[in-house]
Each structure stands twice: as C-alpha cells, then as structure tokens.
Amino acid sequence: MTVPQTVVDTIFKALAPAGPERVIAGHHADLTSGGAWGAKLGEDGMNATVCINDDDTHNSPVEACEAKAPLLIRQRTLQQDSGGAGKWRGGLGVVQEVEVLTPAMFDSRVEHALCLP
Fold first, then answer.
1. Contact yes or no for 91/48 (Cβ under 8 A)
2. 79 inside domain
3. Per-residue pLDDT tens for 37-70?
4. Is residue 109 part of a domain?
5. Of 24, 75, 74, 28, nearest in space to 47 by CA
6. For residues 83 and 90, is the Cβ–Cβ distance under 8 A?
7. What is the pLDDT confidence band of residue 8, given thresholds at 50, 70 and 90?
8. Which of 24, 79, 81, 92 could form a disulfide linkage to 38, CB 3.0–4.6 angstroms apart?
9. Where are the alpha helices (DSSP H) in 3-76?
C-alpha cells in the first residue's frame, strides 16, 4: 500500500539532493496534535512541537483544552524512544489519552501511521 506524501514532504525530498545537510528528516504532519520534527545535520529533532503545516492551533495546554470542551485529558506525555536510532534522532512523539465527557462525534485523520517519517 502506498501512503501519499504531504506537500511539505515532497518539497523536502526535492531539496535534499541539492543540500542534504540543510533539509530535515520527515516530520509528524498530524493536524490533530503537536508532534515531533525530524533530525537535521548536527542536532536532534524537536520534541512534541507545533504542526509544520498548521501553526500551533492543535497543541494547546491541557487546562485550555479542558476549559474549552467537555474533555478530560488523562495523559499527554512524550513517547519514549520514538525518535528512532542514529547519530541524531528525530524528536519524540506524543502519547495522548482523552476522555470525552459528553456524547460526541469524532473524526480523525492521521498521517505517517503506516509510513513513518
């Protein structure tokens, strides 16, 4: 099964041959929560940061999420050892467990689950 790339992934891949030392590895590309950035030459990727293609609108503090919607954030932690192996590892991903306190509909679109960065 082929998993489509994001536009950002395509741009990174196109630039890599011309300047591999200046292009980061794959990013999390998940619009539902903050995630990690790929490593780059000389340093690890950033842990659990904002989404590359949607600013910081999905990585709100737990208290703000719970105040805005009928949710209980049971857990939001860094996913240990999720950055991969190598001289410089990717940033750590996020584990998030949420309880919805009222009846609700849920829609999720998750990228890079079958084709990791």
1. yes
2. yes
3. 778 888 888 887 655 555 545 567 889 889 999 9
4. no
5. 28
6. yes
7. confident
8. 24
9. 7-15, 62-68
The H-assigned helical ranges of 1-117 are 7-15, 62-68
* Residue 49 tokens, joined: 């940061």
pLDDT-based confidence at residue 101 (cuts at 50, 70, 90): very high
Range of the domain at 54: 7-100
Tokens standing for residue 64 = 């703000």
> What are the helix and strand counts (H, E) for the chain?
2, 2
Per-residue tokens: 94 = 């996020």
- Cα(12)–Cα(60) distance, integer angstroms: 27
Here the tokens at position 16 are 């890599």
Q: Does residue 88 sit within a domain?
A: yes
What lies within 8 Å, CB to CB, of 104 at 6+ separation is 70
